[in-house]
Amino acid sequence: KEQLSAKLQEEEFSCNYAWSALELHVMQQELIGSDWELSRGSEVFSDGDVMCVLLRASRQKDTGRSTLIVNVRWGLGSRLRALSSAILLAKATMRWFVVVWTPDRHCEAELQDVLDTAAIPGVTVLKSVDSFERRMVKTKGWDTWNVLDGIVSNNKYTLDEDRHVYISSQKSLSLSPLWSYQADNVLLRQLVNHVSAQVAEIVETLQSSTALSSGKSVVGVHVRMQQDVFGEIGSKDEQLLQAVPFRISCDWSHLLHTLESKFADDTMSDKVLFVVSDDDRAIEGLSNAFPGHVVAFKSNLRCFSRKVQCVQQAMASIVLLSQSKEIIGSKWSAMSEVAIRAGGHPFQFGCELPEGNPWDLSSGKNALISQV
Hints:
The protein has 16 helices and 11 strands. It has helices at about 1-10, 20-30, 50-60, 60-65, 75-90, 110-115, 135-140, 180-190, 195-210, 230-235, 245-250, 250-260, 280-290, 310-320, 335-345, 365-370; strands at about 65-70, 95-100, 125, 140-145, 150, 165-170, 215-225, 270-275, 295, 325-330, 345-350. A 6-stranded mixed beta sheet has the order 3-2-1-6-4-5, sandwiched between helices.
């Protein structure tokens, strides 16, 4: 028990640990008598990492540190921007940091499939919080920020020194007074520069086998235009329909107008376009418009689903886009946003509203769904 107590007080200790049967038993006994009010049959006791997180948080008085847990949601880009901003807040308030990264239909990959977690010293990664998420609202000493649904404790994005916080978010935590765009971009860049071995191999393979290694100036182009929002993630959730107008507005033909006007003075000779898209038509169309200047994943290797290999390819695409000297992105795309912010290079969006503009894109999500 004393050895376990000392371990939990180590500043860079991660709860992702090979727990012995004795340690699991000791943690279970301590949690039964804690503020969590857990019964002996609780499903929490089947996961040593979860028990460690709860026990360490309950020992705040001993460690002198509060806890920040972030549950990152939705797709890869959304998760990365929520993750970097949560790291920023944890650092700013010297909190112990835990990330919940649950593989689901939006992103089937685990965190370690895309990132090297060594880039986040001492981080604990949990795959699920189903066993204790609801308890947090009722447990004293905890605040909750459900950014996803706009429900925040006390209606304020503040971090009280003596309280823990549990955050569920799909975007940057910019409403916190501690958040900084520049500082968040630095952390986002660090994440993008520390990818998993599998992602690094994808990046290296494409770089070494294409004109990306030719020394020419690379312009990154990201086209987010797939309108089959239900088929994309295998869900009939009507909330997904609000993405349709934005996808149509970012059709490759609109980005083509941007590129043609940008390179009208015959400046393409020393440039390579690295094109990433969720639709083959964009890659084929831009390849025909700029023959010999487009680099993309080979057609038999392109991957558009949310399966692990596809998410890893998307992470590799973010890395390569961020390394481009300039980015032409898709507005309203989390992937474009992450690549642009991590790269720090000049950028612009190539999206245009369709002729006649049938949608009011500034309207609320319910009104937009109705319009679609």
